Amino acid sequence: MLVLLFVSAFVSATLLPGSSEVLLLSLATQVPEQWLSLLVVASVGNTIGGLVTFAMGWGAFNYGNRRFTWLPNISEQTKAKPWLSQYGAWSLLMSWAPVIGDALCFIAGAAKLSVWQCTLAMLIGKTIRYTLLLLLGSSIASI
Predict the structure, then answer these.
(1) Which of 69, 106, 108, 110 has the smallest count of CB within 10 Å of its CB?
(2) Could you give the angle at the alpha carbon of 105 between the alpha carbons of 58 and 3, nearest 5°?
(3) Which residue blocks in the chain are alpha helix, DSSP H?
(4) Coil, helix or strand for 69?
(5) Residues 6+ apart with CB under 8 A from 65
(6) 3-state secondary structure 84-109
C-alpha cells in the first residue's frame, strides 16, 4: 500500500502523467489512522520525483545558452522562468503546481541552483499541499 503510494507520488512529480492525490485520499479513507505515514510517503516520493526532473535539467543544458525546445509544453517553461528569476530555489515551493511545477524543477536544475535548497523547498511545498489535501479530504468525509 505505501509502496504503491510512493511510486504514484514519484511518477506524478516527473514529466510522466500521474495523479497521486486520488490514491492518497483513497488510502486515507481506508486507513485513517495511518495519515502521518501516508503524508510522509507521498511527500518524500513526490520530492524524489521532482529531484529526477531537477537532475534532468542539471544534466541537459547550461541555463541561458540553449532553448528547452524538447519540453512537452514550451509555455510551461516561459511561465516558470520569471518565478525562478525572482525567487530562486524558493520558487520550488510551487513545484507541486500542475502547470508550472515540472518546468520549475527542470529549469532550477538547468540553472544549477543549490540541490539542498531546492530539495528543502520542494519537500516543504509538497508536504503542505498533501497536508491540505488530507485535511480537506477528512473534513469532506466527516460531513
Answers:
(1) 69
(2) 105
(3) 2-12, 20-30, 35-60, 74-87, 101-110, 115-141
(4) coil
(5) none
(6) HHHHHHHHHHHCCCCCCHHHHHHHHH
Quote the pTM value. Answer: 0.83
Residue 104 neighbours by CB under 8 Å, 6+ apart? 80, 83, 84, 91, 92, 94, 95, 97
**Is 16 in a helix, a strand, or coil?**
coil
Who's near 85: CB < 8 A, 6+ residues apart? Answer: none
pLDDT tens, N- to C-terminus, the chain (143 residues): 999 999 999 999 887 778 899 999 999 999 999 999 999 999 999 999 999 999 998 887 654 555 554 444 444 555 666 767 788 899 999 999 887 888 899 989 988 899 999 999 999 999 999 999 999 988 777 66
Domain ranges of the chain: 2-141
Q: How many residues does the chain have?
A: 143
- Give the three cell numbers for residue 7: 511510486
